[in-house]
Amino acid sequence: TVAAGDNSLTMEGGGNIGYDRLLIATGARPVQLPVPGMDLAGVHNCWTLADARAIAGLAAKDSNVVLIGAGFIGCIILESLLKLAGNLSVVEMEERMVSRMMDDTAGGMLKRWCESKNVEVLTSSRVSAIEAASDGAGDKDVVLEDGRKLNAHLVVLAVGVAPNMDFLDGSGVATDDGILVDEHLATNVENIFAAGDVAQGPDFSTGGHMVHAIQPTAVEHGRIAALNMAGLNPVYKGSLNMNVLATAGLVSSSFGKWDGVSGGDSAAATDEENYKYLCLQFGEDRLIGALGIGMTEHVGVMRGLITSRTPLGDWKDKLLASPNRVMEAYVAHSQL
Ligand SMILES: Cc1cc2nc3c(=O)[nH]c(=O)nc-3n(C[C@H](O)[C@H](O)[C@H](O)COP(=O)(O)OP(=O)(O)OC[C@H]3O[C@@H](n4cnc5c(N)ncnc54)[C@H](O)[C@@H]3O)c2cc1C
């Protein structure tokens, strides 16, 4: 627990530690599915090194593996499971894969790509239970809400994360989806700061507060928090919602307001056959969001144009007509 009144921490095993300034960087933990069967052998999160070793030990070339969750972390895990597992099925309750970073076109393209790699992708499908199968070989049945059953030797869960902040109960530190911090990474309680996955900090695109549970945000948070704790006073510009992902070898990326803003303009170039897609979102004449599939060469450019808030001038119309010219737009503005 944290006793903010007398600047001290109480440890689980007993004893207190005093502080002048406190940084909370306790990260997140995997969310568990609220269904029966989560405690069966062979049902794993992928969080610790021990989890990864257990998964690698159970995934064999002739085995059935079910991955529950096709979000950002699920797709990272999918990339590795595909190399190990015989038959891989993915169950996702949303109507598309990686729904928090992809629109229907991108999510559909990713699903088709995975299916072309012999991955069974079941979207709009919820798991209702995991049961021991009657084969005597330690297999399980993953039961879906519509009654279907998927046989699995190994079940891997990737259904979201929750911040580790329970120990703050009664401390007075304000929380929401994470610990609320201002542009100095300070909480509402004097001398207490928070950073990383546990912190709900300023968002670059909206000015609101978001948990961006990714490593670059944790690094930026840590740096700004440390400088402020050391008595300097830097202001954080906010973290960019950003995901760069390889799923079964297909690279996807999304940045900022990839889903656009009301009254904004957007342009998309779609090549379904070659799994290429680029969608740009504009606010006035600035790029505010981007979403790409199979566009590895544009990743840095999209991020750069968004974070620099570069006024595009007449390049906005050129990009509305031909989004694939985003590299040219970047070069034109970086040489001004
Ligand atoms: C499978 C997987 C793949 C990922 N891939 C990517 C990726 O490709 N790119 C990317 O940017 N991000 C990725 N992430 C996210 C990235 O790992 C996190 O954003 C990053 O680790 C956050 O850093 P952190 O320091 O805030 O938290 P953590 O790295 O989680 O560290 C928090 C630490 O605090 C400790 N702790 C917790 N509670 C307490 C307590 N009460 N007392 C003492 N100690 C405590 C924990 O044990 C842990 O060591 C991935 C995550 C997972 C699970």
TrEMBL record:
Q: Which UniProt keywords apply?
A: FAD, Flavoprotein
Which Pfam families is this protein grouped with?
Answer: Pyr_redox_2
Q: Which InterPro entries does the entry link to?
A: FAD-bd_OxRdtase, FAD/NAD-bd_sf, FAD/NAD-binding_dom
Q: Which residues span the membrane?
A: none
Gene Ontology molecular function: any one? oxidoreductase activity
In what residue span(s) does the FAD/NAD(P)-binding domain sit? 12-203
Required co-factors: FAD
The protein depicted here goes by the name FAD/NAD(P)-binding domain-containing protein
Originating organism: marine metagenome
